[in-house]
Design brief:
35% strand; alpha/beta; 5-stranded mixed β-sheet; 5 strands; 101 residues; Transcription Regulator spoIIAA
Amino acid sequence: MMKTTFKEEKEHLVMAFDGRLDTAASSQTEEDMRVLYDCEGRDIILDCTNLQYISSSGLRLFLGLIKKARPKGSHVYLTGVSDDLRQVLDETGFTALFEML
């Protein structure tokens, strides 16, 4: 089960993930993430502190967010990345796409 929490702050938008971002959860998570598409120059922080697992479907959602945010002048940051998640990001080449906090 995946739970997302959205928080709007002055300079940035924050979305926290709690649970497993697998294929079964990706549809709802994609809907939840749509609020981030209207970033208009504000940076986005994806809080992965409680993200237990991410599948290729979840990685696709993160990549899609970057593709929407960058043309608007926004940066996408990952925070709370566990060693397991970092390994997945390293193995897939995603580490180079994200800025880590």
